[in-house]
Protein backbone atom coordinates (compact mmCIF):
# COMPACT_ATOMS: atom_id res chain seq x y z
CA UNK A 1 0.00 0.00 0.00
CA UNK A 2 1.39 3.39 -0.88
CA UNK A 3 2.40 5.82 1.84
CA UNK A 4 -0.16 8.44 0.82
CA UNK A 5 -2.98 5.89 1.01
CA UNK A 6 -1.84 4.73 4.45
CA UNK A 7 -1.77 8.33 5.65
CA UNK A 8 -5.29 8.98 4.34
CA UNK A 9 -6.70 5.87 6.09
CA UNK A 10 -5.07 6.76 9.38
CA UNK A 11 -6.47 10.35 9.61
CA UNK A 12 -9.77 9.21 11.21
CA UNK A 13 -8.07 6.76 13.62
CA UNK A 14 -6.24 6.97 16.92
CA UNK A 15 -3.47 4.77 18.36
CA UNK A 16 -4.29 2.54 21.32
CA UNK A 17 -1.89 2.09 24.29
CA UNK A 18 -0.84 -1.37 23.13
CA UNK A 19 0.02 -0.02 19.66
CA UNK A 20 -3.28 -0.65 17.81
CA UNK A 21 -5.63 1.97 16.31
CA UNK A 22 -9.41 2.65 16.53
CA UNK A 23 -12.00 5.19 15.13
CA UNK A 24 -13.92 7.96 17.02
CA UNK A 25 -16.69 6.73 19.29
CA UNK A 26 -20.38 7.57 18.73
CA UNK A 27 -20.37 9.82 21.80
CA UNK A 28 -17.45 11.79 20.46
CA UNK A 29 -19.14 12.20 17.08
CA UNK A 30 -22.42 13.34 18.73
CA UNK A 31 -20.57 15.90 20.84
CA UNK A 32 -18.81 17.24 17.76
CA UNK A 33 -22.06 17.41 15.75
CA UNK A 34 -23.94 19.09 18.62
CA UNK A 35 -21.21 21.70 18.99
CA UNK A 36 -21.29 22.38 15.28
CA UNK A 37 -25.09 22.65 15.34
CA UNK A 38 -25.03 25.09 18.25
CA UNK A 39 -22.46 27.22 16.43
CA UNK A 40 -24.56 27.13 13.25
CA UNK A 41 -27.66 28.24 15.17
CA UNK A 42 -25.68 31.08 16.73
CA UNK A 43 -24.42 32.21 13.33
CA UNK A 44 -27.94 31.99 11.88
CA UNK A 45 -29.44 34.05 14.73
CA UNK A 46 -26.68 36.63 14.43
CA UNK A 47 -27.16 36.86 10.66
CA UNK A 48 -30.93 37.16 11.07
CA UNK A 49 -30.64 39.97 13.63
CA UNK A 50 -28.03 41.80 11.59
CA UNK A 51 -30.17 41.46 8.46
CA UNK A 52 -33.25 42.73 10.32
CA UNK A 53 -31.26 45.62 11.76
CA UNK A 54 -30.00 46.71 8.36
CA UNK A 55 -33.49 46.28 6.85
CA UNK A 56 -34.99 48.48 9.57
CA UNK A 57 -32.25 51.05 9.24
CA UNK A 58 -32.75 51.11 5.48
CA UNK A 59 -36.45 51.85 6.02
CA UNK A 60 -35.61 54.60 8.48
CA UNK A 61 -33.05 56.00 6.05
CA UNK A 62 -35.71 56.09 3.34
CA UNK A 63 -38.04 57.97 5.70
CA UNK A 64 -35.28 60.46 6.52
CA UNK A 65 -34.52 60.99 2.83
CA UNK A 66 -38.20 61.53 2.04
CA UNK A 67 -38.47 63.97 4.94
CA UNK A 68 -35.50 66.04 3.77
CA UNK A 69 -36.66 66.10 0.14
CA UNK A 70 -40.23 67.04 1.06
CA UNK A 71 -39.16 69.70 3.53
CA UNK A 72 -36.77 71.31 1.06
CA UNK A 73 -39.60 71.57 -1.47
CA UNK A 74 -41.81 73.11 1.19
CA UNK A 75 -39.04 75.51 2.19
CA UNK A 76 -38.57 76.70 -1.40
CA UNK A 77 -42.29 77.41 -1.77
CA UNK A 78 -42.53 79.25 1.55
CA UNK A 79 -39.56 81.43 0.60
CA UNK A 80 -41.31 82.36 -2.66
CA UNK A 81 -44.65 83.17 -1.00
CA UNK A 82 -45.78 86.73 -1.66
CA UNK A 83 -43.53 87.09 -4.72
CA UNK A 84 -45.25 89.46 -7.22
CA UNK A 85 -48.46 89.25 -5.18
CA UNK A 86 -50.15 91.14 -2.38
CA UNK A 87 -49.30 90.10 1.18
CA UNK A 88 -52.90 90.89 2.16
CA UNK A 89 -55.47 91.41 -0.58
CA UNK A 90 -58.14 92.60 1.85
CA UNK A 91 -56.07 95.39 3.43
CA UNK A 92 -53.57 96.31 0.70
CA UNK A 93 -53.31 100.08 0.39
CA UNK A 94 -51.74 99.67 -3.04
CA UNK A 95 -54.72 97.77 -4.46
CA UNK A 96 -57.33 99.51 -6.59
CA UNK A 97 -59.77 100.18 -5.04
CA UNK A 98 -57.76 100.43 -1.82
CA UNK A 99 -58.71 100.30 1.82
CA UNK A 100 -58.89 103.47 3.90
CA UNK A 101 -55.31 104.33 4.93
CA UNK A 102 -56.16 106.23 8.10
CA UNK A 103 -58.49 103.68 9.67
CA UNK A 104 -57.17 100.49 8.13
CA UNK A 105 -60.72 99.38 7.40
CA UNK A 106 -61.02 96.40 5.10
CA UNK A 107 -62.08 97.22 1.55
CA UNK A 108 -64.86 94.75 0.75
CA UNK A 109 -64.79 95.49 -2.99
CA UNK A 110 -63.78 92.34 -4.86
CA UNK A 111 -64.06 90.34 -1.63
CA UNK A 112 -67.72 89.49 -1.22
CA UNK A 113 -70.86 89.65 -3.32
CA UNK A 114 -71.40 89.68 -7.07
CA UNK A 115 -69.17 87.78 -9.45
CA UNK A 116 -66.29 87.84 -6.98
CA UNK A 117 -68.08 85.52 -4.58
CA UNK A 118 -67.27 82.75 -7.09
CA UNK A 119 -63.54 83.25 -6.54
CA UNK A 120 -63.50 82.68 -2.81
CA UNK A 121 -59.80 81.79 -2.74
CA UNK A 122 -58.92 85.04 -4.50
CA UNK A 123 -60.59 86.90 -1.64
CA UNK A 124 -58.13 85.19 0.72
CA UNK A 125 -55.07 86.17 -1.33
CA UNK A 126 -52.19 86.83 1.07
CA UNK A 127 -48.67 85.69 1.73
CA UNK A 128 -50.07 82.67 3.58
CA UNK A 129 -53.29 81.30 5.09
CA UNK A 130 -53.69 78.44 7.53
CA UNK A 131 -56.56 76.05 8.11
CA UNK A 132 -55.66 74.57 11.49
CA UNK A 133 -56.56 70.94 12.12
CA UNK A 134 -58.17 70.63 8.70
CA UNK A 135 -57.08 67.03 8.05
CA UNK A 136 -58.95 64.49 10.17
CA UNK A 137 -59.46 60.72 10.24
CA UNK A 138 -60.22 58.05 12.81
CA UNK A 139 -56.57 57.01 12.88
CA UNK A 140 -55.31 60.61 13.33
CA UNK A 141 -57.81 61.29 16.11
CA UNK A 142 -56.89 58.09 17.92
CA UNK A 143 -53.26 59.20 17.95
CA UNK A 144 -53.97 62.81 18.96
CA UNK A 145 -52.96 64.25 15.56
CA UNK A 146 -54.71 67.07 13.69
CA UNK A 147 -52.53 68.21 10.73
CA UNK A 148 -52.84 71.73 9.31
CA UNK A 149 -53.39 72.89 5.74
CA UNK A 150 -51.07 75.68 4.57
CA UNK A 151 -51.98 77.83 1.56
CA UNK A 152 -49.36 80.04 -0.09
CA UNK A 153 -49.89 82.75 -2.71
CA UNK A 154 -47.26 84.01 -5.12
CA UNK A 155 -45.86 83.82 -8.62
CA UNK A 156 -44.56 80.25 -8.81
CA UNK A 157 -44.53 80.14 -12.61
CA UNK A 158 -42.11 82.84 -13.74
CA UNK A 159 -39.90 85.63 -12.45
CA UNK A 160 -41.11 88.21 -14.98
CA UNK A 161 -43.85 90.79 -15.37
CA UNK A 162 -45.17 91.01 -18.93
CA UNK A 163 -45.81 94.39 -20.62
CA UNK A 164 -49.28 95.08 -21.97
CA UNK A 165 -49.86 96.69 -25.35
CA UNK A 166 -53.51 97.55 -24.70
CA UNK A 167 -56.60 96.64 -22.71
CA UNK A 168 -60.17 96.48 -23.93
CA UNK A 169 -63.14 94.97 -22.10
CA UNK A 170 -62.38 91.29 -21.48
CA UNK A 171 -59.13 91.20 -23.45
CA UNK A 172 -55.61 92.08 -22.37
CA UNK A 173 -53.21 92.31 -25.34
CA UNK A 174 -49.59 91.61 -24.44
CA UNK A 175 -46.59 93.11 -26.21
CA UNK A 176 -45.46 90.27 -28.51
CA UNK A 177 -41.95 91.72 -28.87
CA UNK A 178 -41.17 92.09 -25.18
CA UNK A 179 -37.97 90.64 -23.75
CA UNK A 180 -40.02 88.83 -21.13
CA UNK A 181 -42.01 86.83 -23.69
CA UNK A 182 -38.84 86.16 -25.68
CA UNK A 183 -37.19 84.66 -22.58
CA UNK A 184 -40.22 82.41 -22.16
CA UNK A 185 -39.72 81.03 -25.69
CA UNK A 186 -42.46 83.05 -27.38
CA UNK A 187 -41.73 83.40 -31.10
CA UNK A 188 -43.57 86.41 -32.52
CA UNK A 189 -42.82 85.21 -36.06
CA UNK A 190 -43.95 81.62 -35.52
CA UNK A 191 -47.31 79.92 -35.76
CA UNK A 192 -50.26 80.87 -33.60
CA UNK A 193 -50.56 77.41 -32.02
CA UNK A 194 -46.93 77.34 -30.89
CA UNK A 195 -47.21 80.84 -29.47
CA UNK A 196 -50.47 79.96 -27.70
CA UNK A 197 -48.80 76.96 -26.04
CA UNK A 198 -46.18 79.29 -24.52
CA UNK A 199 -48.87 81.64 -23.24
CA UNK A 200 -50.93 78.82 -21.78
CA UNK A 201 -47.91 77.48 -19.94
CA UNK A 202 -47.41 80.84 -18.21
CA UNK A 203 -51.03 81.98 -17.92
CA UNK A 204 -52.93 78.75 -17.40
CA UNK A 205 -56.71 79.05 -17.46
CA UNK A 206 -58.02 79.38 -13.92
CA UNK A 207 -55.02 81.19 -12.41
CA UNK A 208 -55.07 84.62 -10.81
CA UNK A 209 -53.75 87.52 -12.89
CA UNK A 210 -52.07 90.48 -11.19
CA UNK A 211 -52.36 93.73 -13.16
CA UNK A 212 -50.03 96.56 -12.12
CA UNK A 213 -49.79 100.12 -13.40
CA UNK A 214 -46.11 100.89 -13.97
CA UNK A 215 -46.83 104.62 -13.59
CA UNK A 216 -48.84 104.62 -10.34
CA UNK A 217 -48.02 101.25 -8.77
CA UNK A 218 -51.71 100.42 -8.38
CA UNK A 219 -52.55 96.72 -8.36
CA UNK A 220 -55.67 94.94 -9.54
CA UNK A 221 -56.45 91.25 -9.63
CA UNK A 222 -58.56 89.21 -12.00
CA UNK A 223 -58.78 85.66 -13.39
CA UNK A 224 -57.34 84.21 -16.59
CA UNK A 225 -60.14 82.41 -18.41
CA UNK A 226 -58.15 81.77 -21.61
CA UNK A 227 -54.80 82.53 -23.26
CA UNK A 228 -54.51 82.44 -27.03
CA UNK A 229 -52.72 83.85 -30.04
CA UNK A 230 -54.79 84.16 -33.22
CA UNK A 231 -51.44 84.84 -34.82
CA UNK A 232 -48.06 84.76 -33.16
CA UNK A 233 -48.03 88.54 -33.10
CA UNK A 234 -51.29 88.83 -31.15
CA UNK A 235 -50.97 87.34 -27.63
CA UNK A 236 -54.32 87.74 -25.85
CA UNK A 237 -55.38 87.03 -22.27
CA UNK A 238 -59.14 86.77 -21.73
CA UNK A 239 -60.59 87.74 -18.34
CA UNK A 240 -64.12 87.86 -16.83
CA UNK A 241 -66.23 90.93 -17.57
CA UNK A 242 -66.20 93.97 -15.24
CA UNK A 243 -63.38 92.75 -13.04
CA UNK A 244 -60.91 95.58 -13.68
CA UNK A 245 -61.50 99.20 -12.67
CA UNK A 246 -60.92 101.96 -15.24
CA UNK A 247 -60.04 105.51 -14.22
CA UNK A 248 -62.99 107.87 -14.61
CA UNK A 249 -64.59 110.94 -13.07
CA UNK A 250 -66.15 108.74 -10.37
CA UNK A 251 -63.13 106.57 -9.53
CA UNK A 252 -59.88 107.73 -7.94
CA UNK A 253 -57.79 104.91 -9.39
CA UNK A 254 -57.82 102.42 -12.22
CA UNK A 255 -56.56 101.75 -15.73
CA UNK A 256 -55.76 104.89 -17.70
CA UNK A 257 -56.26 105.23 -21.44
CA UNK A 258 -55.50 102.06 -23.39
CA UNK A 259 -53.56 100.53 -20.52
CA UNK A 260 -50.19 100.71 -22.26
CA UNK A 261 -48.45 101.19 -18.91
CA UNK A 262 -49.72 97.92 -17.46
CA UNK A 263 -47.64 94.93 -16.40
CA UNK A 264 -49.16 91.51 -15.71
CA UNK A 265 -48.02 88.30 -14.05
CA UNK A 266 -49.70 85.09 -12.86
CA UNK A 267 -50.35 84.41 -9.19
CA UNK A 268 -50.57 80.77 -8.11
CA UNK A 269 -52.31 79.27 -5.10
CA UNK A 270 -50.22 76.48 -3.60
CA UNK A 271 -51.65 74.30 -0.83
CA UNK A 272 -49.77 71.82 1.35
CA UNK A 273 -51.82 69.22 3.20
CA UNK A 274 -51.80 65.59 4.26
CA UNK A 275 -54.01 63.37 2.16
CA UNK A 276 -54.15 60.43 -0.21
CA UNK A 277 -54.26 60.20 -4.00
CA UNK A 278 -55.07 56.49 -3.98
CA UNK A 279 -58.25 57.16 -6.00
CA UNK A 280 -56.25 58.92 -8.73
CA UNK A 281 -55.31 56.48 -11.48
CA UNK A 282 -52.13 58.43 -12.24
CA UNK A 283 -50.75 57.50 -8.81
CA UNK A 284 -52.03 53.91 -8.67
CA UNK A 285 -48.50 52.45 -8.77
CA UNK A 286 -47.70 54.08 -5.41
CA UNK A 287 -50.63 52.51 -3.56
CA UNK A 288 -50.37 48.84 -4.50
CA UNK A 289 -49.35 47.51 -1.08
CA UNK A 290 -46.43 45.10 -0.87
CA UNK A 291 -45.90 44.38 2.83
CA UNK A 292 -47.06 41.31 4.76
CA UNK A 293 -49.34 38.50 3.66
CA UNK A 294 -52.11 39.60 1.30
CA UNK A 295 -50.50 43.04 1.12
CA UNK A 296 -50.70 44.33 4.69
CA UNK A 297 -48.97 47.49 3.52
CA UNK A 298 -52.15 48.45 1.71
CA UNK A 299 -54.21 48.00 4.88
CA UNK A 300 -52.04 50.19 7.10
CA UNK A 301 -53.22 53.80 7.43
CA UNK A 302 -51.32 55.98 4.97
CA UNK A 303 -51.16 59.72 4.32
CA UNK A 304 -48.80 61.68 2.08
CA UNK A 305 -47.74 65.32 2.00
CA UNK A 306 -49.51 66.73 -1.05
CA UNK A 307 -48.69 69.87 -3.01
CA UNK A 308 -51.67 71.18 -4.95
CA UNK A 309 -52.18 74.20 -7.17
CA UNK A 310 -55.71 75.36 -6.50
CA UNK A 311 -58.27 77.03 -8.69
CA UNK A 312 -59.43 80.41 -7.28
CA UNK A 313 -62.88 78.84 -7.21
CA UNK A 314 -62.57 76.27 -4.43
CA UNK A 315 -65.56 74.36 -5.79
CA UNK A 316 -63.44 73.28 -8.77
CA UNK A 317 -60.79 70.58 -8.83
CA UNK A 318 -57.13 71.51 -8.21
CA UNK A 319 -55.21 72.55 -11.31
CA UNK A 320 -52.44 70.09 -10.42
CA UNK A 321 -51.51 67.62 -7.69
CA UNK A 322 -48.28 65.92 -6.69
CA UNK A 323 -46.93 63.86 -3.80
CA UNK A 324 -44.06 65.70 -2.12
CA UNK A 325 -43.33 63.17 0.64
CA UNK A 326 -44.80 59.70 1.18
CA UNK A 327 -45.97 58.27 4.52
CA UNK A 328 -46.48 61.58 6.32
CA UNK A 329 -48.10 61.45 9.77
CA UNK A 330 -48.21 65.10 10.88
CA UNK A 331 -47.88 68.63 9.49
CA UNK A 332 -48.19 71.69 11.73
CA UNK A 333 -47.27 75.35 11.25
CA UNK A 334 -46.22 78.14 13.61
CA UNK A 335 -45.51 81.77 12.73
CA UNK A 336 -43.23 84.68 13.58
CA UNK A 337 -44.75 88.15 13.12
CA UNK A 338 -43.96 91.81 13.68
CA UNK A 339 -45.95 93.52 16.40
CA UNK A 340 -47.67 96.40 14.58
CA UNK A 341 -47.41 98.64 17.65
CA UNK A 342 -43.94 97.99 19.02
CA UNK A 343 -42.16 96.57 15.97
CA UNK A 344 -40.86 93.65 18.01
CA UNK A 345 -40.86 90.09 16.69
CA UNK A 346 -43.35 87.70 18.27
CA UNK A 347 -43.47 83.93 17.82
CA UNK A 348 -46.64 81.86 18.01
CA UNK A 349 -46.06 78.08 17.89
CA UNK A 350 -48.32 75.55 16.22
CA UNK A 351 -51.79 75.37 17.71
CA UNK A 352 -51.54 78.80 19.35
CA UNK A 353 -54.86 80.67 19.58
CA UNK A 354 -53.24 83.81 18.09
CA UNK A 355 -52.43 82.15 14.75
CA UNK A 356 -55.86 83.09 13.43
CA UNK A 357 -55.00 86.77 13.88
CA UNK A 358 -52.38 86.52 11.14
CA UNK A 359 -53.24 83.43 9.11
CA UNK A 360 -57.04 83.41 9.29
CA UNK A 361 -59.43 83.96 6.39
CA UNK A 362 -59.73 87.45 4.91
CA UNK A 363 -63.47 87.75 5.49
CA UNK A 364 -63.49 86.59 9.11
CA UNK A 365 -62.25 88.51 12.17
CA UNK A 366 -59.78 88.73 13.84
CA UNK A 367 -57.50 88.54 10.77
CA UNK A 368 -59.17 91.68 9.39
CA UNK A 369 -58.96 93.73 12.58
CA UNK A 370 -56.51 96.59 13.06
CA UNK A 371 -52.87 95.61 13.70
CA UNK A 372 -53.51 92.06 12.53
CA UNK A 373 -53.15 90.28 9.21
CA UNK A 374 -50.74 88.23 7.09
CA UNK A 375 -48.81 91.35 5.99
CA UNK A 376 -47.12 91.19 9.41
CA UNK A 377 -45.72 87.67 8.89
CA UNK A 378 -41.93 87.53 8.86
CA UNK A 379 -41.36 83.76 9.03
CA UNK A 380 -43.28 80.49 9.06
CA UNK A 381 -42.31 77.53 11.22
CA UNK A 382 -43.55 74.29 9.58
CA UNK A 383 -43.10 70.93 11.30
CA UNK A 384 -43.25 67.80 9.15
CA UNK A 385 -43.21 64.21 10.42
CA UNK A 386 -42.62 61.18 8.16
CA UNK A 387 -42.83 57.50 9.21
CA UNK A 388 -41.03 54.47 7.89
CA UNK A 389 -42.98 52.40 5.40
CA UNK A 390 -43.24 49.28 7.57
CA UNK A 391 -43.29 48.85 11.36
CA UNK A 392 -40.27 47.61 13.29
CA UNK A 393 -41.48 47.54 16.91
CA UNK A 394 -44.32 46.17 19.00
CA UNK A 395 -44.36 49.18 21.30
CA UNK A 396 -43.82 52.92 21.40
CA UNK A 397 -41.92 55.46 23.50
CA UNK A 398 -43.96 57.77 25.70
CA UNK A 399 -43.54 61.52 25.55
CA UNK A 400 -43.13 62.33 21.85
CA UNK A 401 -43.86 61.48 18.25
CA UNK A 402 -41.17 58.80 17.96
CA UNK A 403 -43.32 55.92 16.71
CA UNK A 404 -46.89 55.57 15.46
CA UNK A 405 -49.06 52.44 15.56
CA UNK A 406 -50.16 50.74 12.36
CA UNK A 407 -53.02 48.26 12.26
CA UNK A 408 -51.82 44.95 10.82
CA UNK A 409 -53.42 43.46 7.75
CA UNK A 410 -55.53 40.32 7.58
CA UNK A 411 -53.70 37.37 9.12
CA UNK A 412 -51.62 39.50 11.46
CA UNK A 413 -51.07 38.16 14.95
CA UNK A 414 -50.55 41.46 16.79
CA UNK A 415 -53.16 44.12 17.47
CA UNK A 416 -50.81 46.82 16.21
CA UNK A 417 -47.25 47.36 15.11
CA UNK A 418 -45.27 50.57 15.42
CA UNK A 419 -43.34 52.45 12.75
CA UNK A 420 -40.59 54.89 13.58
CA UNK A 421 -41.02 58.60 12.80
CA UNK A 422 -38.58 61.30 11.71
CA UNK A 423 -39.50 64.98 12.29
CA UNK A 424 -38.04 68.24 10.94
CA UNK A 425 -38.90 71.79 11.98
CA UNK A 426 -37.33 75.19 11.28
CA UNK A 427 -38.05 78.88 10.78
CA UNK A 428 -38.36 79.87 7.12
CA UNK A 429 -38.09 83.60 6.45
CA UNK A 430 -40.65 85.26 4.16
CA UNK A 431 -38.79 88.12 2.53
CA UNK A 432 -41.01 89.12 -0.38
CA UNK A 433 -43.00 91.69 1.59
CA UNK A 434 -40.20 93.38 3.53
CA UNK A 435 -40.36 96.59 1.43
CA UNK A 436 -44.15 96.91 1.45
CA UNK A 437 -45.52 99.92 3.32
CA UNK A 438 -48.61 99.54 5.52
CA UNK A 439 -50.11 102.43 7.43
Architecture overview:
The structure is a single chain. The chain contains eight helices and 19 strands. With 439 residues, the chain is α+β, with helices and mostly antiparallel strands. It has a domain at 32-88 and 276-439. Strands 3, 4, 5, 6, 7, 8, 9, 10, 11, 12 and 13 form an eleven-stranded antiparallel beta sheet that branches. Strands 14, 15, 16, 17, 18 and 19 form a six-stranded antiparallel beta sheet that branches. A two-stranded antiparallel ribbon has the order 1-2.
Share of β-strand residues: 25-35%
Rg result: 33 Å
The helicity comes to 10-25%
* Count of individual beta strands: 19
Helical element count? 8
Give a short account of the largest sheet: 11 strands, antiparallel
Nearest-integer average pLDDT? 84
Based on the model shown, name its key terms.
439 residues, alpha+beta, 11-stranded antiparallel β-sheet, 6-stranded antiparallel β-sheet, 8 helices, 19 strands, 22% helix
Q: What's the gist of this structure?
A:
This protein has 439 residues and is an alpha+beta fold. It has helices at 3-10, 26-80, 120-123, 138-142, 179-183, 192-202, 296-299, 355-359, and strands at 13-15, 21-23, 128-131, 149-154, 162-168, 171-174, 208-213, 219-223, 226-229, 235-238, 262-275, 304-309, 320-325, 328-338, 345-348, 377-387, 403-406, 417-425, 428-429.
Amino acid sequence: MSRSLRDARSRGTRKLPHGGVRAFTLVELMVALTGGLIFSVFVFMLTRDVSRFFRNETGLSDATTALLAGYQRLRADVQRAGFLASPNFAKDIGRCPARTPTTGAVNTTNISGGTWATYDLLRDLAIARLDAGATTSTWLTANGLAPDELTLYGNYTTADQYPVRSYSGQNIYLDPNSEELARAGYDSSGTGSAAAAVLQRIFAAGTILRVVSADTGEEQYTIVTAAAAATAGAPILTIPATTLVAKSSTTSCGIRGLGADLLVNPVNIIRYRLGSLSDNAAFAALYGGTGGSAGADAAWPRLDLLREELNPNSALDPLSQEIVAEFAVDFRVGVQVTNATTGALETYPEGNANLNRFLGQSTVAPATEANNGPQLIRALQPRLAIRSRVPDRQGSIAGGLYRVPLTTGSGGTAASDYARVRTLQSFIATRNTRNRVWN
